[in-house]
Structure formats: structure tokens, C-alpha cells
Amino acid sequence: MACKSALCEPCLYVDLEIEAEGFCSTCAECLCSKCIIEHKKVKLTRNHVVTRDSVPDNGDAIREMNEMLACPVHKEMKISYKCNDHMTYMCTVCRVDTHLNCEHVIEIAKCDGVLEDIHGSLAELKLSTASIKERKQENRKLLYQSQVDILSKQEIVIQKAINALEELKVKLAKDTDEKLQVAVSEIDKDTELIEVIEQRTVKNIEILEAVEKYGDSTCRKVIEHLLADDILKKRNRVKDIDKQEEYKLLFMKNEDSIQTPSLGTLSLLREERTEDKNECFELGIEKTSDEVTEIEMSSSQSENTVVTVTSSQTKDAVASNSQAGNTVVSSSQAEAAVEKCSPTKITDVNILPTQNPVGETETRSLPNISESFFFTEKNAYRIKGSTDTNRCEIYGISILPDGRLVLIDNENSNTKLLSPDYKLLDVLRLPGRPIRMCYIGENKLAVSFGLVKRINRYSVLGNTISYDGGFSTTLFNHGIGFDGKCIVAIMCGKDFSCNNDAKNDSIQIEFRNPFSGEINDVIRDFKVESNKVWSLTLRNTQAVQFIGSNVMIIAELNRILLFELREKSGKTIAVEKSFYVCKGEALKNAIDNIATGSDSIFACTSTGSVIQISASDFNSNRIVISNIGKTIRAIAVDEKNGRIILGCDEKDKILVYELRRKL
């Protein structure tokens, strides 16, 4: 901050306006003669650089100079070294702690100065930026000038389309109602007949009870024969009705609905039911979540739509329908209103909770950082559904209590439910491209999106995943976790595809009610344990996870930070306790996502490796999986069953590693 009218800044805090007579370069503050003397008296400030009879015109430059000199990790220390291996600047503490084994570290004070070259480069850069800015402003002006003409042309095209669609809307609604009434009429007839049989059955029960109490043996035998014949007839009739195919309304969008005389062909179909309930299998029809649709959708996705209300189907019926092309799902934003009528599906009812083999509970759990291990299995499982039009790119994995998996697929904008043996059970279309997911209890999950400012809930019931509500946010999400009570979200002014920096952007941690979305608390200031005066600057945030309810782990591209949450004056503050910086096999800016265990943090990287870090000592870490050769986007750890599950740039597969401790 520049000196305010050349007044002593410390004195302004006690409402005294005294003319400044000097300047402290270390504090970047103007000082009066008395404060200059006090500065020299106090042990903490006596070594500060104070200039008498010289008050700079721009104190901001001095302040920024001090910030540049501060170590990025230890704010209280000044930069002394540069590591060319990691292209980072550091203090003497960092040199010993994290860069001791680096080969190309230079002591800056012993290097030749480059001030003259810097002056010339800055002047050249200033001229370049001014020229580009002028050109951009001119381009912006021309765009606004062309806007009026373009909007006028668009209005003509849109109005023609609206008129045509309104006519088709009326025709389609009439056609739909007519076919619906045909189906409803048949259903009502069957219902009336069933009610008559039901009433007669109740009456026959009363007759049977009466004859047992008051009739003689001959009377009972006659009634029994009459009732037996009647039951046989009614049972056959009920069976015939039960075996009837159920009605289904099917709408298939025309390939070019604007150019054709109708939006599509509406058909009234019936589907065959199976009598043996145990032979029912899930039909992998993709459903659509019922919320706001992301503005930017991939143009390569499918343009066909099916809206169905379908009954149970056998394997043969599923195969025949798939071959006939009746199961098609749209990804077009214009079809969002149609897709809200999502199809119901049959589920595999024989899913059981995963159980460990007797006697193997201990050996199958994941090893901690101090234990040796070996892999028992390394498998890849295909997760691509019949409705996926793009390559699967998994950004999040959650393990349900019974061993099933929920995945979020960024490229196909959907979520997938897998059985414990990794078979695809259900697919649900999402309103945008998902980026992060967390489990919030009772088979419910929270999902955030890249371009949609919203966090949604999804529930798993049986073998079906469905939309369970959600709430809007004012900022974009960069990661969500759950602390046992609240959804904890990293929020930023830039979307997930952009690098962020709390120094220039608005980055905050929001604690939200999982159901109402109400903000219970916000953290904007992150303290360092060694110096609670200094604040930590978040940058390039990737994910957030919790160990317990008060230990928060934040992953950045190049660091993993452990914060302890504390209550102070009715607010929550985050105090950094430990940090990990990429090194060795984990190259700089390689962290993509994290998962937490009871005593370890697991980080997956863009270089195809998985790092295990001790939650109690970040200096204790190791590579547990390496040389995958693919960027790993998502990771989940199953401590109970000794599994690490990875979503990576593999061909539509997830990778599952099963580990055992070496006893």
C-alpha cells in the first residue's frame, strides 16, 4: 500500500496523523521519527532496512518485492536457492528438507546479476502488451458492431423454427393422447375384471367359512367341488391377464427433426414379460438426470432419443431390443426436456455384500507405509456401456458399503453403477461433465461438474442409480469431500479446466448442508503451523478429502497439504500441519487426484504412478504403483478388501490392483 499522504502508517492505527520522515523497506510502511526509533528498539524489527528522509512514491512496489523474496513454502524465510531440477525457488529450510538430493541447485547470491537485461526485457514486454491490448480492444469493438446484424438474422431463423415446432407440438400431443387412451382403456378393462375376481374370491372365502361351521358333510363336499371348479377358472383367467404384455410409450427422434414434417414417429408397443422372476437381468438403458444441462456439450455425442416406461425383460428380450435399435439415448441439450422421463429398468437382485475369505481379513487389508507388500492380482475391467458414444474417462470412483462401485465418466457425461465383480448395472445421464464425487452416507453420493455451477445428489436403490436433488453454487467447483456432516467444496472463480491461484482468484472452502445446500462455514484464510501470522496461498487445486472430521487434505498439482481444522471465535480456521511436494518419479505438477485411508493418503498422477503418504508423517512416502503408462484421473482405496481401483486413460477400462501384506 502506498503511503497515505506521506503520513506515518503505524500511527494511523491509533488515529494519529503524523508526517512520515522515513520508510521501512521490510514492512513497506512509512514511519514518523518516533516510530523509526521504536523500530530500532524492538528486537523483532531492529534489523529492518529503514531509510530516513526518503519516502517512496509507490509503497506497493516495495511490498510486492518483499512478497517475491518470501519462500513459497515457508513465508517467514527468504529465497536463497533455485532448484533447476524442479524449476522452483526455495529457502534454506526447503534446501535441506525437500531438495537435499537434487543435483542442480544454485545459490542465487553467488550468481552474476542480470539487471540490465531485465530492464530491457521488461520494456520490450510492456510495449508488446500495450500493442496486443490495443488490438484486442479493436477486435472487441468490431464484434459488438457485427452483433446487431447477426442477431437480426438469427431472429428470422429462430422465428421460423418456432412456428414450425409449435405446429408439430400440437400434432404430437394429440397423437400421444390418442395412443395413450387406447392403452389406458385396455388396462382399465383388465383392472375391472381383476376387481370382480377379487370380490368374488372374498365372498367364496366367507362361504367356505360358513359351510365349515354350519354345513353337514354332504353340503361341505358339494361346496368344495363348486369352489374348486370356480377357483380353477379364475386362476386361469388371472394367469392369462398376468402374462399379458405391458404397454410402453416409445418416442424416437427423427435424425433431422427440423426438416421433416414431424418430430418423430410415436409407436404404441407391448413388451413380453417373464414368469420366472429369478431369470430377470438388468437392461443397461441409460437414464437422464433431471437438472440444468451443461452449456458446452460434445458435438460428437449421439443425436437419437428414446423415452420408455418398460417392464422386466429376459436376456433374450434384451438382446432382441438392442439388435432392433430400440434402445437409443440422446446427449443433445435440445432434448433435455424429453429425457426427463427416464426409463425404469430391471436390476440384478442377487447382489450380496462383499465378504472376506475366512482367515484372510488381516492379510487382504492394505499395507501401511511401513509394511512390505506384493500384488496378488492386476486386472482391467471394461466399463463402456452401449450408450457411451465417447471414450470413457473416469474422474471419480466411490466404493459403496456392499462393495459395488459408482463411477463418474467425464467424456460421456454420465455416472455408472458396477457390481462387486465389476459388471455394469446402471448408467445415468448427468446435466454436465462431472469432475468430482464423494460418498455422503446411506448409499448417497454428491457430484460436482466442470462448467455447471451445481452440486447434485444421487441415490443407489437396488441396482438403480437416480437423481436425488441438489443445489446451485455461485462459484465453480475444484473438488468435494465429506466430513461426516457437510459437503466440503473447493470453490473458485475459474472453472476446473483452468489453473487457479488464490493470490489472483477467489478460492474458498465451503461447508454446505448436503440436502439444503446452505453454507454453514467458509474458509478463505489458511495458516501455517510454524507461523500463524502468515497465510498459505492455494494454487492449482485438484481435490479435497478428509481423515476423520477435522483433518482436511487438499491436493494441488504439485503439492498435497494436510490441514487441521480448529474453531476460533465461532469460525473454522485451517492450519497447515504437513505438506508433500512432487519429486522423483512424481514429476512436478503431476498430481491428479487423491483418496484417503485410515492412516495413509494415496495420490494418483498424470505420469501413471500412485504415491502412498503417511498421514502422520508426510516425509514417509513411497511409490506403490508405477509405469502404468497412462494418466490416472481417479483413485479409490478399499482397505477392507485390499484393493486400489484406478480410472485412467485406458481404453474404456478401470484398473484394479489387489495387494497383500508380506507377513
Key terms:
single chain; 663 residues; alpha+beta; Double Stranded RNA Binding Domain; 26% helix; elongated
How would you describe this protein?
It is a single chain. This protein is of the alpha+beta class and 663 residues long. Helix content is 26%, strand content 32%. Among the domains are: 4-112, Classic Zinc Finger (Double Stranded RNA Binding Domain), CATH 3.30.160.60; 131-230, no CATH class. A 6-stranded mixed sheet has the order 25-24-29-28-27-26, with no helix packed on it. It has a 5-stranded mixed sheet with strand order 9-15-14-13-12, with no helix packed on it. It starts with 8 loop residues before the first helix and ends with a strand.
CATH class descriptor name of the domain at 4-112: Alpha Beta
Put simply, the count of helices is 9
Report the average pLDDT across residues.
78
Sum up the overall morphology in one term: elongated
- Residues in β-strands, percent: 25-35%
Low-confidence stretches: 260-286, 290-364
Query: By helix and strand content, what is the structural category?
Result: alpha+beta
Question: Compute the gyration radius: what is it?
Answer: 34 Å
CATH topology of the domain at 4-112: Double Stranded RNA Binding Domain
* Overall CATH architecture of the domain at 4-112: 2-Layer Sandwich
Task: List how many beta strands DSSP finds.
Answer: 36
**Biggest sheet record:** 6 strands, mixed
User: Helical amount among residues, as a percent range?
Assistant: 25-40%
Please name the fourth-level CATH homologous superfamily of the domain at 4-112: Classic Zinc Finger
